[in-house]
Amino acid sequence: MKIFLDTVGCRLNQSEIEHMAARFRDEGHEVVASAAEADLMVINTCTVTAAADADSRKKIRQAARSGVNQIIATGCYATLQPERISQLPGVELVVANSRKEMLVEDALGTAFSQSKKILSRIPLPGQRKRTRAFIKVQDGCDNHCTFCITRIARGKSVSRTMKEVFADVEFALAGGVKEIVLTGVNLGAWGKDLSAFSSLGALMRELISRYSPPRLRLSSLEPWDVNNEMIDAMQLPGVCGHLHLPLQSGCDEILQKMGRRTDTQTYKETVGKIRKKIPEVAVTTDIMVGFPGETETHFQKSLEFVQRMAFTSGHVFRYSPRPGTPAAKLPDRIEAHVCKTRNRQMRELFTRLETNHQRKQLGQVLEVLWEKSEPSPAGWQLSGLSENFLRVAALADRNAYNEISGVRVESIKNKKLFGEVLE
Predict the structure, then answer these.
(1) Which domain-ending residue is among 108, 134, 162?
(2) In this structure, are 233 and 285 located in the same domain?
(3) Of 317, 334, 360, which residue is a domain's last?
(4) In total, how many domains does the chain have?
(5) Same domain, 195 and 304
(6) Using one digit for the tens of pLDDT, what is the confidence trace for 275-320?
(7) One domain, residues 218 and 160
(8) What gap in Å lies between CA 278 and CA 89, rounded to an integer?
């Protein structure tokens, strides 16, 4: 049988469909690059925003139109809205997050087996093909951000054991992976439910000591989970100098309404501590605009704080009310046209910050992992990700896919760095 796996949303979803792909292959089935080729499609849905809901539904409808015989929906949107998603065309099975680990067995009607015939990672074909391996180390969340539905969809924080993480890392490295990305719903909570001696910093040290991966990167990390042990681990050989620390608002009044466990001063001190020990670190963030009760004064405070923090880039979201969350009951909703204007202004600020950061790279040599390599009349067109999370392109005389090269940055075009590959 031909299987197509797709996902909406976070890197954790990407990690999960790669696990599913290995299990389907282990059962003798083929993972294909598009829904049009498939007999069965699995879609790992997201519900972090209304747009994510819509994207999840859109992908299912597109797959049904392409002729997929059977569609299985799982993930956060499928968990919270099983009846609605089951009514979409082609959906024959809805699998909640709590049952996701058994999805392949449920789909095939087979018994679960710990044995793996496949001993190394094979990247997903098509648009979901990744040179980087997203390793799920933790699931769920014990925080209480008032806007977030993920905690409800994913449940309480649960850490995977070191043994389980090691097995996934070994599996990825055996497949030729050059970059390991640790991911979770609340990544910094890893180990807190295992023992008093378990922490994300300790896990990083063990991974570097045991496997010495060419690169180890952390995905999104809550600012209050950053501690000295983790900052020290960030300085180990191979650990990428990049941290994504969601802020959500640069205004303390709004942060309090959001239920965030930080304020602007504490956040600033945390980032300052990181930058003091790792001067070249790239810090990216998430910002939400239009949260209930956000006045123009609040928004201007947020803009000013983001400017002062000099982030290297960031994601901007408009607030999306999620039924079942405390924020959905708050008064003083912000009108759509105001949210749209604030969204544009915040994005423009991040564009300027990103451009400033890119200009600082001119003349510098960056280590780049090539994620795309395409032949052209002039040679091989390469595109990849630098250690400090910048998109870089170059021309080479050979196919360098999944290799790491030094690149001297020469110019900026269309928001991407271009440079010369150093031999």
Answers:
(1) 108
(2) yes
(3) 360
(4) 3
(5) yes
(6) 999 999 999 999 999 999 999 999 999 999 999 999 999 999 999 9
(7) yes
(8) 51
Q: What is the pLDDT of residues 118-156, one digit of tens each?
A: 555 677 776 656 789 999 999 999 999 999 998 889 999
The range of the structural domain enclosing residue 79 comes to 2-108
- Length of the chain counted residue by residue: 423
Instruction: List the structure tokens of 281.
Output: 């670190």
Q: Are residues 236 and 304 in the same domain?
A: yes
- In angstroms, the Cα distances linking 54 to 20, 58, 85, 328 are 24, 6, 11, 18
Cα distances (Å, whole numbers) of residue 235 to 50, 385, 395: 38, 19, 31
pTM for the complete prediction? 0.91
Residue 12, sorted as left (phi over 0), alpha (psi -120 to 50) or beta, turns out to be: alpha
Percentage helix, strand, coil for the chain under 3-state DSSP, each rounded to 5: 40, 25, 35
| Dist. CA 258–CA 95, nearest whole Å | 30
Give a yes or no: residue 88 inside a domain. Answer: yes
Residue 255 φ then ψ, to 5°: -55, -40
Task: Measure the CA–CA gap between 41 and 35, rounded to whole angstroms.
Answer: 7
Instruction: Using DSSP, state whether 289 is helix, strand or coil.
Output: strand
Domain contains 113: no
Given strand 313-318, what is the order of strands in its sheet?
Answer: 242-244, 282-289, 313-318
